[in-house]
Design brief:
By secondary structure, this protein is α/β, with parallel strands linked by helices. It has 2 domains: 5-179 and 361-377, Rossmann fold (3-Layer(aba) Sandwich), CATH 3.40.50.2000; 182-359, Glycogen Phosphorylase B (Rossmann fold), CATH 3.40.50. Helices cover 44% and strands 17% of the residues. It contains 15 helices and 14 strands. It has helices at residues 22-35, 67-84, 101-106, 120-123, 132-147, 156-166, 191-197, 219-232, 247-253, 267-276, 291-298, 309-314, 328-339, 342-359, 362-377; strands spanning 5-9, 39-45, 50-52, 55-60, 92-96, 112-116, 150-153, 173-175, 206-210, 237-241, 259-263, 279-282, 303-306, 322-324. Helix 1 packs across helix 15 (362-377) and helix 8 packs across helix 13 (328-339). The radius of gyration is 21 Å and the shape is globular. GO terms for molecular function: hexosyltransferase activity. Residues 19-183 form the Glycosyltransferase subfamily 4-like N-terminal domain. It comes from Methanocella arvoryzae (strain DSM 22066 / NBRC 105507 / MRE50). Residues 200-354 form the Glycosyl transferase family domain.
């Protein structure tokens, strides 16, 4: 395929404003496309323009009193910056999530791709929100899906969700998963030393949760599973890392139990904890894809995952992970199953790493996205 000139529109990247899984998903895809010889420009929030790993970043600084108006301000500024670089013209305009819908609207006559990384319905924990922001955001998602030439979703489950929510035809949506650089999550460490740094006995099993402390991510389900795990494994210890509106409630619920809440942890410490853990739990109520799953597999850890969304789609039960119901008793059973046989858990982790190397390397994912671009250009 001849070299393309590609514009990304996304409200976050890993090098400026980083909020959640959207930033690595968009950033690493852009870098992988640049590595294949394409000219990639990335319009996002930040201060001074720069080029990183072949991707040209163009920054804007929006301002508003609420997230909806803020996103409109950001989109207007992005389009203004875009026009400064649109000669020769961009071949592909790729928009990521609802925040940039206003930019898509202004450029709708071009060759446009819109990627759903999630939906407002899913972020609300499988609820159609009745508050004004939820209605506005859902409306923007519907409009973006209607307007873009082609749509991509990060899993088949998310594709079905978009079709159901917004009445989008099956043939307009392609599934292109997220990817990963697995070597980033490998670390040669002494697990016992890492555990001791948190006051945990080096031989005690460590159960790890990393994510936003929000209803969608299900930390309350794990919290209610903790006493059930301890009935069978009194020596189990838990670390629940991340921030969010549920954190204080969870701390109160688990007071006196062997659970630590370190809050936000830097990437380097996350990799250490990941490689020291004996089970990684992902109890999300809605998970369009689940980057933590790929990170656990990259570190050859065994995941215990809710049987939902991209987690259910990607995990082969009792081969590279354990699926559980959205129920504390089921989550506790899955954790105890993994902790009961470390050699079996290690085998599941190795199988997961092999799956990553077959299906989820960023070079593979970028190739699939280029196929979508070809369809859009026809």
């Amino acid at each position: 395929m001849e070299s393309l000139k590609i514009a990304f529109f996304c409200w976050e990247s890993i090098y400026s404003e980083r909020i959640g899984g959207l930033s690595p998903g968009a950033t690493y895809l852009a870098e992988s496309l640049a590595a294949k010889g394409h000219e990639v420009h990335f319009f996002t929030r930040g201060s001074a323009d720069r080029t990183i790993k072949g991707v040209q970043y163009h920054y804007v600084q929006p301002f508003a009193n609420n997230i909806v108006d803020y996103s409109k301000s950001m989109s207007d500024l992005m389009v203004r910056r875009f026009r400064d670089f649109d000669a020769p013209a961009f071949d592909i305009l790729h928009f990521h999530d609802w925040h940039v819908t206003e930019a898509l609207h202004q450029l709708k006559d071009r060759t446009t791709i819109f990627t759903f990384h999630s939906t407002e319905y899913g972020r609300a924990g499988n609820q159609i929100g009745q508050w004004w922001e939820a209605k506005e955001i859902s409306g923007k998602e519907w409009y973006a899906a209607l307007t873009a030439r082609r749509i991509t979703a990060v899993s088949h489950v998310l594709k079905n969700e978009i079709m159901w929510l917004y009445n989008i035809p099956f043939e307009k949506i392609d599934v292109v998963s997220n990817g990963i650089y697995p070597e980033v999550y490998e670390a040669i460490i002494d697990p016992g030393r890492v555990k001791e740094a948190y006051g945990i006995h080096p031989y005690a099993p460590l159960v790890l949760f990393v994510g936003r402390m929000e209803y969608q991510k299900g930390p309350d389900l794990l919290a209610r599973a903790v006493p059930l795990v301890l009935r069978h494994r009194w020596d189990a210890r838990f670390i629940m890392a991340g921030q969010g509106t549920m954190k204080y409630e969870l701390q109160q619920m688990l007071a006196g139990l062997p659970v630590q809440f370190p809050g936000y942890i830097p990437d380097s410490e996350y990799v250490r904890l990941l490689n020291a853990s004996d089970a990684v739990v992902i109890p999300s109520r809605n998970e369009p894809f689940g980057l933590v799953l790929l990170e656990a597999w990259s570190a050859r850890r065994c995941p215990v995952v809710a049987d939902v969304g991209g987690l259910s789609e990607n995990v082969t039960n009792f081969t590279d992970g354990v699926k559980v119901y959205l129920d504390p008793a089921s989550i506790a059973w899955g954790i105890n199953y993994v902790l009961s046989d470390p050699s079996r858990a290690a085998a599941y982790g190795r199988n997961g790493r092999r799956k990553v190397e077959r299906h989820f390397l960023w070079s593979v994912v970028a190739g699939k996205m280029l196929d979508v671009y070809r369809k859009a250009l026809q």
